């Protein structure tokens, strides 16, 4: 029977890409808990390759050497401490689980000091544990090729074997024993769905409550492996959603935000209660994972507005990408010359808005995390409105209303809503004001209408729980 998955109201996930464990602990206490974030996706916590000759790229983390919890983000004790501290303020931790393959680059010992060779990882796996293909994946129309050959040349585990399934389940159970509440299944498309289901069943047999599972299945609709093959194991990350929203906001071809409600309603997306969605992820923002037209922090206001749309629109469980600034696609996080990651908090105190971008701290993001929580009980879109291609608005019944002006001109209009009459606090401006006070009050009249002006390339949002003081 299909696994229970978190409903969309379970809240917003933030991917703190390449953050260290002590930084994540502080971020939970100071920002994520107070602001109502639901969970953090962390970078893969296991031992990984070290590649100094390429300047310690981020993708070191996707080449596992062993399942010792010693990585660029910190050690086992730091990981355990972080999970506890986040849990204490109501924030769950989801680990990125790299279980399809092992490390390819074997010239240096791994991050925990383990010496290994391709197809031979001491105490874990030897050559008989790997698939026989041993060639890079070359044919996405052939399911066996996709699941049994090597993703970008990474040694492909034979996940049909009981000993491999047990080894992988042991790793995930170990993470769960530290309090980790869910897993992003990396490269799920490259693991046969029945074999992945068997591995996850071994985990569920030993972990209570069952971890939240979301599987990385990039399905453009034209390949042998389909996202629905994976629904029985949990949630699935929908890659079409972010592409469709991105193309609309970028005005690719003749697309525009005005068409989005129709386009999303008719697209072949993962069912809402089983979908994890994003505007950009760590691959798409740098042209990895197949590339495509996705909007990223480098697009500035366009990115903010796309994210506002995702957080306001009642589909799937949203994941916010929290980036570090980069110029080249291989570039790792801010680091010393020896590859030690430099931190947001002490000792380095780099802070946010520079080398660490921290999209999740933007006022529009924290406002919309609040909006999503306040509107979750109303899953319908009401009063959809558009003017031209780039000015849209919609309601969430009597719970909330959002206006997104992606045009380069000011928008003044009288909007129809289902909101009860009253004085509402405009959420974005409240977040921006230093005091957190309600800077801008919008009055909804007895007929549910309000008239307002929205600046070019900006948005406003109202919800029922943020009324202005009488
Ligand atoms: C994923 N999802 O399914 C990750 O989101 C994605 O970031 C991972 O690839 C991929 N699956 C495998 O876990 C990343 C980089 C690759 C990198 C790989 C392994 O996008 O570029 O490959 O991690 O580190 C690198 C080199 C390749 C080389 C390969 C093997 O870039 O040129 O062939 O290592 O040595
Ligand atoms: Ca595989």
From TrEMBL:
Family: Belongs to the glycosyl hydrolase 13 family.
Name this protein carries in UniProt: Alpha-amylase
Entry's Gene Ontology molecular function annotations: alpha-amylase activity; metal ion binding
Gene Ontology BP, a term: carbohydrate metabolic process
Chain ranges of the Glycosyl hydrolase family 13 catalytic domain: 11-372
InterPro entries documented for this protein: A-amylase/branching_C (IPR006048), A-amylase_C (IPR031319), Alpha_amylase (IPR006046), GH (IPR017853), GH13_cat_dom (IPR006047), Glyco_hydro_b (IPR013780)
Keywords: Calcium, Carbohydrate metabolism, Glycosidase, Hydrolase, Metal-binding
Superkingdom of source: Bacteria
Domain Alpha-amylase C-terminal residues, every copy: 382-467
Enzyme Commission code: 3.2.1.1
CDD domains: AmyAc_bac_euk_AmyA (cd11317)
Catalyzed chemical reaction(s): Endohydrolysis of (1->4)-alpha-D-glucosidic linkages in polysaccharides containing three or more (1->4)-alpha-linked D-glucose units
Span of the signal peptide: none
Statement: the UniProt record of this protein carries the keyword Calcium: yes
Names of the cofactor(s): Ca(2+)
Upper lineage: Bacteria, Bacillati, Cyanobacteriota, Cyanophyceae, Leptolyngbyales
Top EC class, one word: hydrolase
Species name: Leptolyngbya iicbica LK
């Amino acid at each position: 029977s299909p696994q229970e998955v978190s409903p969309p109201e379970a809240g917003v996930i933030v991917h703190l890409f390449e953050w260290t464990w002590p930084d994540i602990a502080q971020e939970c206490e100071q920002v994520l808990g107070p602001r109502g974030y639901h969970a953090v996706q962390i970078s893969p916590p296991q031992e990984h390759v070290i590649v100094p000759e390429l300047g310690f790229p981020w993708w070191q983390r996707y080449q596992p050497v062993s399942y010792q919890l010693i990585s660029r983000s910190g050690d086992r004790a730091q990981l355990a401490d972080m999970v506890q501290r986040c849990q204490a303020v109501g924030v769950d931790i989801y680990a990125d689980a790299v279980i399809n393959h092992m490390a390819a680059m074997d010239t240096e010992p791994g991050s925990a000091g383990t010496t290994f060779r391709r197809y031979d990882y001491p105490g874990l796996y030897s050559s008989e544990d790997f698939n026989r293909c041993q060639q890079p994946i070359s044919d996405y129309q052939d399911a066996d090729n996709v699941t049994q050959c090597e993703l970008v040349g990474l040694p492909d585990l034979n996940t049909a074997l009981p000993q491999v399934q047990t080894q992988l389940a042991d790793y995930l159970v170990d993470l769960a024993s530290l309090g980790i509440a869910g897993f992003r299944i990396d490269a799920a498309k490259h693991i046969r769905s029945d074999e992945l289901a068997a591995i996850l069943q071994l985990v569920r047999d030993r972990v209570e409550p069952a971890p939240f599972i979301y599987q990385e299945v990039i399905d453009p609709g034209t390949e042998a492996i389909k996202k629905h093959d994976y629904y029985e194991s949990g949630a699935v990350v929908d890659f079409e959603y972010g592409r469709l929203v991105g193309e609309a906001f970028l005005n690719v071809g003749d697309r525009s935000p005005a068409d989005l409600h129709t386009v999303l309603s008719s697209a072949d997306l993962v069912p809402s209660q089983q979908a994890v969605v994003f505007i950009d992820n760590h691959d798409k923002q740098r042209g990895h994972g197949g590339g495509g037209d996705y909007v990223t922090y480098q697009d500035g206001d366009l990115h903010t507005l796309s994210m506002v749309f995702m957080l306001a629109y009642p589909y799937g469980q949203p994941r916010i990408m929290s980036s570090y600034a980069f110029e080249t696609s291989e570039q790792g996080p801010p680091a010393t010359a020896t590859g030690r990651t430099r931190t947001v908090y002490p000792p380095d105190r780099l802070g946010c808005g520079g080398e660490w971008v921290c999209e999740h701290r933007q006022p529009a993001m924290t406002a919309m995390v609040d909006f999503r929580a306040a509107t979750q009980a109303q899953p319908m879109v009401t009063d959809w409105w558009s003017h031209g291609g780039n000015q849209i608005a919609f309601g969430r019944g009597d719970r909330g209303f959002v206006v997104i002006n992606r045009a380069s001109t000011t928008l003044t209009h009288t909007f129809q809503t289902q909101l009860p009459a009253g004085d509402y606090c405009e959420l974005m401006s409240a977040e921006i004001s230093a005091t957190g006070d309600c800077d801008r009050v919008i009055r909804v009249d007895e007929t549910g209408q309000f008239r307002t002006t929205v600046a070019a390339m900006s948005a406003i949002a109202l919800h029922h729980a943020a009324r202005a003081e009488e």
